Amino acid sequence: MRMSDHAVKVEPDHTTASSGDKDNVVVTEELVLDTSPAASLSPPVPSCVPSAAGVQGSATPLASKDKARSRSKMGRDDRSTEGKVNTDIGYAISTHVGKHLNRLRGEKVLQIKCAGRVMQGKQETNGNSTHQRPRDRHEPGNKHQRKKKPVTVDTSKAKTSLEALKMSIKQLKWKEFPLGRRAACDIYWHGTSFHDNDHIVSGQVNKFPGMIEMLKKINLSRALRTMHELFPEEYNFYPRSWILPDEYQQFSAQIRGLKDSDAAAHRTFIVKPDSGSQGEGIYLIREASEVRLAAGSQARQAVVQEYVQRPLLIDKLKFDIRLYVLVKALEPLQIYIAKEGLTRFCTEPYQEPNQKNLSHVFMHLTNYSLNVQSDNFVHSDSQSTGSKRTFSSVLYRLASKGVDIKKVWSDVISLVIKTVIALVPELKVHYQADIPPGKPGPTCFQILGFDILLTKNLKPVLLEVNSNPSMRIEHEQEVAPGVFEYVSSPVDEDVKVCVIRDTLRLMDPGLNKHGHPPPAGGGGAAQQGTVITTKAGPPDKAPEEEPGDGLPTLCLKQVYPKYTKQFQYLCLVDRIATLFLRFLGIKGNMRLGPTAFRTFIRCCKLSNSNLPMASVDILYIDITRRWAASTQDSREAGMGLQAFVEAFFQLAGRRSKAALLRDQVASLLEVCEAHLDGPLSALPVAAAVSLEDRRSLSRGRAMAREASKLSPSSSSSSSTTHPPPLCSPAAPRRAVSHDQRLQRSRHGPLRTNLEN
Ligand code: ADP
């Protein structure tokens, strides 16, 4: 896929545009699409039903937190307009939101008209990478089926998603175990992390190990930066970011450089704490000196990022999009996108940043949790009004002004797929460490919350990905002066219940067990000894195209493997991760020891007169040390995947004369894969590594002694079958055990599913 630029003039319909939108209706858009996936993606397209006018925002000063409880009546008139938005590609949703008012919780029935075919539950054809035991499951839709055994769901750890989950289970007629169950359940719904319940040995859990860590701002930035190095054009949807405090000097130099080249340009940057959520700790700056760096060990890790100064506005207000994305399996990768999402609006009219407004939270940050505290916040009673609306209602609004919303949707889908592709390699390492192949364990799936901003030119920009997007369907409201109650939020309910219910439908073990044979190692880890090809899956018919159980057409649309062909070439890091996993060889470990690294070099025949083993050792030590210093979690010694990828890039650069990094890397991968496709590939990883280790044991020891002279601080491999550690003082810092690591991830700072 190549992206090409071509300008498209979007002609607005000024008759329907509110005056406040005038700045945003005439857009000359830099479209980036030709043979790209976008061309063939099938986004939902709103059609034809007039929508209500939106929020009429008025400026509000910052620091109105103390007025948080008072609610403006602004926009109430809009409530009478039902936000009927049809979305095509075989389905149409017409949600009569007015009926949501005053309905009792638990008695709600989603009113969804399906233009698509009725589901009749043929088995899923996409291949499911689960390895669960065969169960006595029904074939939905088969009239002669045996009596159904309901799917069992353990909801005891569901936390704030409980309400929506209960409704979903009820709609599916499945069986809920709110207090857990002694016998195994089919599905475990965790509110926070994979480790919410550590005693699961079968079934499916709605969280991947490592997802929380991977989606912290620094790790996400790193993963996307690596992909940007390889594919600068394809990965241009994430604002340029620097990691603080490590990259403060580079950031500072960059700002100076920009000023030197254009003194008039006033760029703004946004600083976000690494583990922050709900806008907490975020601030805008225009000078590097404004970064609030605490000293020494107090230095708070953060990301400083280019601020998108010209977002698309509706009714003069900045807004962002929350899209729900289901990662159904890692191997082969399966991604679904919810056809409906949410948009969250600021509550103070937007102005481009200037020295005076930099601290105006309600103008610059779209977080629900912040804006709900503004007097101008309007709880939405319909899908197309208020401070939280459906994405389709916004798309409809844009379409009415002539915006090519199919293009917007396809760019969004493309962004989502590329982001998941960037995350998958590291997730596979976590998965293999937590659920080693061959050991009993559950398989995993996860709903992610993508936060996306549209620029004035309609280009989607990724802000962040939430591992625990809020699934709350109620909000606190003042029902009488000083009296607060949780009341149902129709917009949240419409969107979130569908997402949960249809995620469950896709994870129905009755469907999945008849899917394609699971790869060893379950839903996530790369199968040992196998080079992953991302040419995923069977000639697929997405489940949403399958007939079903009389339930509405799925609100989740499969985008991968559906669009594998267009994106497969991006999976270079994934292939590097496969090599990495292969040489890890130690169950429960996530870092490569020096011996394993040398074994990798040897097996792939990368060492030669230009790259003697001594240089390999130095490369290992050099990179490992640097990463240990820059990552917070350096307790586990050795070379992590990101460091391995860096080493791989360096090795690729040494060997290849190709101009582009991606070509260098692709060529080195081919070399490695060709060598590993030999007899060694038949062996399981650990066996292969230890066989190789035994062969090179004596040589390795000698080299270890040599290398330990070079670096006293490097690490060791923790395998008992491995030669002694390369660098001796590492013994006390041996790779932490699996259990220790688990404990860390259990007790470490976790981001809970707070409303953003
Ligand atoms: P948090 O996890 O604390 O919500 P986010 O990364 O989502 O952090 O940022 C919070 C809000 O700040 C976003 O919802 C968005 O409105 C705004 N924001 C974040 N990054 C940018 C950016 N690069 N440019 C413009 N606005 C941004």
Task: Summarize the topology.
Layout: E1 5-10, H1 22-25, E2 27-32, H2 37-40, E3 46-47, E4 86-87, E5 152-157, H3 162-172, E6 175-177, E7 187-190, E8 204-205, H4 211-214, H5 217-230, E9 241-244, H6 248-261, E10 269-273, E11 283-285, E12 302-306, E13 313-314, E14 317-330, E15 333-338, E16 342-345, H7 361-364, H8 368-371, E17 388-390, H9 391-399, H10 405-434, E18 443-444, E19 446-454, E20 460-466, E21 474-480, E22 483-488, H11 490-507, H12 509-512, E23 556-560, H13 564-567, H14 572-584, H15 594-603, H16 613-630, H17 641-655, H18 661-676, H19 685-695, H20 697-710, H21 738-747
Parallel strand pairs: 5-6, 5-7, 7-8, 8-18
Antiparallel strand pairs: 1-2, 3-4, 9-12, 10-11, 10-12, 13-14, 14-15, 14-16, 14-19, 15-23, 16-17, 19-20, 21-22
This protein binds adenosine-5'-diphosphate (ADP).
Q: What fraction of residues sit in β-strands?
A: 5-15%
> How much helical structure, as a percent, in the residues?
25-40%
Structural class: alpha+beta
What gross morphology would you assign?
A: globular
Rounded average pLDDT: 73
CA-based gyration radius:
26 Å
The description of the largest β-sheet is: 8 strands, antiparallel
Extended strand count: 23
- Measured distance between first and last alpha carbons: 34 Å
List ligands, each type once: adenosine-5'-diphosphate
> Low-confidence stretches at least 5 residues in length (pLDDT < 50)?
1-143, 514-545, 679-755
Number of helices: 21
InterPro entries: TTL/TTLL_fam
Organism: Gadus morhua (Atlantic cod)
Region (Disordered): 1-84, 117-156, 510-548, 700-756
Keywords: ATP-binding, Ligase, Nucleotide-binding
